[in-house]
Amino acid sequence: MSDADGPYRAPRPGRSDTGDSKTWADDSKAWADTKDAHRLIAEALSRLVAADPTIPPHPYLSRHLAQHAARGEVLDDAHVPLAVLPWESSANVRTLLRQSDAVSAARRQEWLEAWARIEPFIGGAGPDSRLTSLHLAHHAATRPRTPLDTSAARVSGSRITPLWSDWTAQDNVLAVSETRLESLTRTTTTDGRSLLVSGDNHGTIRMWEPHGVPAMAPLHTYGGAVQHLLPLPGDLLLSAGTDGSVRVWHLTRGQLLAEPVHRPGTWVSALTLFAAKDAPEVVLVAHSDGRLGALDPVTFRPVDTPLPSLDPAPALLSGVGLGGAEGMALAVAQGRRVRVWDPRRAGGYTHEHEHEGAVRALVDLAAPGRYALCDDSGYIGFRDASTGRETAVAPAPPAGPVVALTALTVGGRAAVASGGSDHTLRVWDARTGAAIGGPLEGHTAPPVALTTLPGTSRELSAPAGQELLVSAGADHTLRRWKPGGPSVGAGRAVRRPVTAAALAGPGSTAGAPLIAVADESGTALWDTGTGRPVPLPAGHATVTAFASALVRGEPLLVTAHSDAEVQLWSLDRGAHAAPAWLAGLLGHSLPVRSMAAFPHDGRTLLVTGGADGTVRLWDLDRVCALACREDHLLSVRDVAVLDTAQGPRIVSAGTDGTVRLWDPVTLRPVGAPLHCEQRVVNAVAAVAVDEPDGAVLVASGGEDGTIRLWDPGTGRPVGRRLDIGDGPVAALAFFRTATGRPCLAATGPGGTIHLWDTDTGSHLLRIVTGSPLGALDVLDARQPGGPHLAHPVLLAAGVAGVCVFDVRMEGR
Predict the structure, then answer these.
(1) Is a pLDDT exceeding 90 seen at residue 234?
(2) Banded pLDDT at 12 (limits 50, 70, 90)
(3) pLDDT single digits (tens) 744-787
(4) Which of 160, 354, 392, 690 suits a disulfide with 382, CB 3.0-4.6 Å?
(5) CB contact at 8 A, 562 and 541
């Protein structure tokens, strides 16, 4: 039956779908109940799903099975089995799980929860990629830091076998935008629906259901970035931004009604409602040149009303309710100066104060006459609009400017939520300035806009009416949070982002790799065969890079640190003994970003590339420096070693957009620099070519999201550019599969691992993690002198942690 034949019909009462004598006649009464009807339909449909996830189910199953199960309160892995998820096309599983939290709490939903974590990011990936991504997500969620068990970890059709993971990504993503979100608000339609409305840097306005599903067709301004959104009664919305215009939209009709303001060459810096005492409400519009105007919120015509004078500079505005019939005062911020204008008083501005940094946001509080503000210094303060007195100050966040604020109520208390440049959200008591709960972590870039949604007891396990916090981040995600508690739907607490990770060689169990992992809290070696950590007393300076080396038969681990020192550690001390510190290498003035060790002429050499722009060569046998080059104009982002027919060659990549080759003895340049035309070059890798002369190419990964292959002998590009399509390339790794197929892995902030066949240039696989990645490492099954492996082992690490898996491209 094709999908065009109409909805799938569940078996009728009196007819067996399994060939046995049981009929549905006894269930006839259940069909009068909608919930039980959907349960019966889900049970019937689930039996039609093949056990093999590589077999596509009927389109009706992939589109509607999860919905039937949710409405029948049987949304679980039994009724929506693993085999249907790689083909799931409703893009609605995470929404259904949130809506079904209360009724499904006791049901097994491991595979569904794993799918929900990656569903927002899966896009147009093919079935192989979807199944493989689901497999990895399930292992990461259900078997953290668990000893290697390949037999239990295999899934038919998956291109990988997960071996070990320490992964704690949040799952509170409502939606993912292809463009950068700039503004966010909430509106209630005339029929009582709460909607989120976002504006992006391409001039597009989108409406979202509270669970993240698009509510209607997007609106296009065909102008600049939409930085301000102001909902009005009657399903109206005002938008404004960098093209200097204010537009009026009817949301539910999707119609542009008017453009009452159009000032090319300026941009709108503020858009807000204001009502003075005994005066009608107006819309205030401030432009970047300090011009302030007022519009009637019904006719949208200019209004002649008293307004404060502004300096010729961008201004932020917030009306501050004074309580009762007293109307509003107007808080005005321009640069570091904040003034309050009260139309009830002669002279206009009543007081002003200066701040250490430029003010980023002003918000009116639920408490009459009070407002909050934040600035570039990290200050969050609460003030009285009548007196100008500072009533409370929030403790300074640990890092950087505060870039966004919104007012809300938590437990009946007036509060504000802040978004910082450290990517976290925090909630503060407006009366005392004290923190409410801990930081809300999960964004991988600063939250740029905040709003609230009404919550329900089912979603929050809290009293109905508790507000939810919603954030739009520069990481292109909309996320939902429970103020004063963990993010909605979050599992374990977010771990510190991994600063460095590498496969450090074989562990105590044959074939089980040893993994070096570092974050801001410390460094450890994990034996994937036993699941036990091996302590590494590396000191207080954060590890920024790892390398493995073999010196006179002794396995070494090399660590680079944030204080620019490089340290050597012996791993030849038993399975669970702490590595012994051997020596330190000093020379870099800024942290080392990448290292590679290699044998040459009977010695073991180490090449390091640092943020100080230098490439340095070290002799690990004698523990001494050999040479230093400063040819890169800026930071050295990555280094690698090529095994060419003429012997090894060192290759380095830099922020200056070049890749350079070096002689491993003299560290003199080999040929001219490769100007890669990829902006910053973040990663390099050696790519072997199937030719009799043992040719090798250089792969460069750029900030522009492309990968290029280069002939190191001629300095010319080979083949076409490869585009990962989801942001900059942060890391590259080359390996050969068990049958010798050459593969290049690439990843970056987009959180997807891409695999290409370097001989054909064909894209083989996408492994979606949903969280930014910054490191890749590989143990090649065919690597000379390496551990005996049936398949290459790949490590990926980033914001959410680290995962290790083998790659099985040829077999199922």
Answers:
(1) yes
(2) very low
(3) 999 998 899 999 999 999 999 999 998 889 999 998 755 544 45
(4) 392
(5) yes
Asked if 376 contacts 419 with a C-beta cutoff of 8 angstroms, the reply is no
- Report the distance separating Cα 372 and Cα 405, nearest Å: 8
CB within 8 A of 751, min separation 6: which ones? 121, 726, 768, 769, 770, 771, 772, 773, 798
* Two structure tokens written together for 401: 């400017």
Give the separation between CA 142 and CA 129, rounded to whole angstroms. Answer: 20
Radius of gyration of the chain (CA): 30
pLDDT of residue 14: 35
Please, which residues have CB within 8 angstroms of residue 16's CB and are 6 or more apart in sequence? 22, 23
Q: Are 333 and 359 in contact (CB under 8 A)?
A: yes
d(CA 714, CA 711): 6
Q: What is the pTM for the complete model shown? A: 0.84
Going through 663-747 in order, the beta strands assigned E by DSSP cover 674-675, 681-688, 696-702, 706-711, 716-723, 731-736, 742-747
CB-based contact 357:375 (threshold 8 Å): yes
- For 246, residues 6+ apart whose C-beta sits below 8 A from its C-beta are 238, 239, 240, 259, 260, 261, 262, 268, 271, 285, 295
For the cut 90, the answer to whether the pLDDT of residue 441 exceeds it is: no
pLDDT for 18 equals: 41
- The pLDDT mean for the chain works out to 87
Residues in the chain: 812
Q: What tokens were used for 715?
A: 């300095």
The 10s digit of each residue's pLDDT in 399-438 is: 678 999 999 998 888 999 999 988 889 999 999 999 998 8
**DSSP symbol at 611:** T
Highest mean pLDDT among 448-457, 675-684, 685-694: 675-684
Which pLDDT score, from 0 to 100, does residue 74 have?
A: 93
3-state secondary structure of 368: coil
718, exposed or middle or buried, with CB in 10 Å at 0-12, 13-18, 19+?
middle
- Taking the C-alpha atoms of residue 258 and residue 298, their distance in angstroms, rounded to an integer, is 12
CB 790, CB 781: distance < 8 Å: yes
List, in order, residues 6 or more apart from 789 with CB less than 8 Å away: 511, 779, 780, 781, 806
Q: How far apart are CA 6 and CA 307, in angstroms?
A: 62
What span, in angstroms and rounded, lies between the C-alpha atoms of 541 and 544?
Answer: 9
- Residue burial 469-492, b: 16+ Cβ < 10 Å; e: rest: bbbbbbbbbbbbbbbbbbbbbbee
CA 396 to chain CA mean position, Å: 25
Residue in the structure block whose two tokens are 């105590």 = 508
Strand order across the 554-561 sheet = 543-551, 554-561, 566-570, 580-585
* Six-digit token string for 698: 């250089």
Q: What is the dihedral angle through the alpha carbons of 219, 223, 225, 227, rounded to the nearest 10 degrees?
A: -70
SS3 category, 605: strand
- Distance, CA of 213 to chain centre: 19
DSSP string, 92-159: -HHHHHHHTHHHHTTS--HHHHHHHHHGGG-TT--HHHHHHHHHHHHHHHH-TTPPP-HHHH--TT-S
Q: Whose CA is closest to 616, among 568, 578, 662, 557?
A: 662
DSSP states along 317-337: EEEEE-STTS-EEEEEEETTE
Least Cα distance to 432 among 370, 339, 355, 359 occurs for 370
Instruction: State pLDDT tens for residues 116-134.
Output: 999 989 988 999 999 999 9
CA nearest 423: which of 404, 396, 410?
404
Q: Give tens-digit pLDDT for 478-531.
A: 999 988 754 444 444 556 789 999 998 766 666 678 899 998 888 989 988 888
Going by C-alpha positions, the residue among 620, 639, 504 that lies closest to residue 566 is 620
